[in-house]
Design brief:
single chain, mainly beta, eight-stranded mixed beta sheet, globular
């Protein structure tokens, strides 16, 4: 049994693990599924299909996991994969240095 649901956190990067291909984010806001994580850390798993984008001069350029840094503001889209053994938070897209408009999310 496996269930997948949409995930869209916005937050500040607190850790990047290149070996494990994970990004840990202190969640500032996000989709309904993310609301319980506001002000907490959420570890996002990435893989070879995850798209990384770097926001520069009001446009996005292609990036990679190595471009993510502690302190960066990021937005992510992905899925929560709920299986019997665990929940996995898989990022499909991560935008680095994203302009976070937190006031429109409340």
């Amino acid at each position: 049994f496996e269930l997948q649901r949409a995930l869209a956190p916005l937050g500040e990067v607190t850790a990047v693990d290149l070996d494990a291909e994970t990004v840990t984010v202190k969640v500032l806001a996000g989709s309904q599924l993310v609301k319980p994580f506001v002000d907490a850390e959420l570890t996002l798993t990435t893989n070879e299909d995850t798209k990384f984008m770097l926001y520069v001069d009001q446009a996005c350029e292609q990036a990679q996991l190595e471009d993510v840094y502690v302190g960066a503001l990021v937005s992510a889209n992905g899925t929560v994969i709920i299986a019997q053994e665990a929940k996995t938070y898989l990022a499909v897209r991560v935008t680095i240095d994203a302009p976070l408009q937190l006031d429109i999310l409340d």
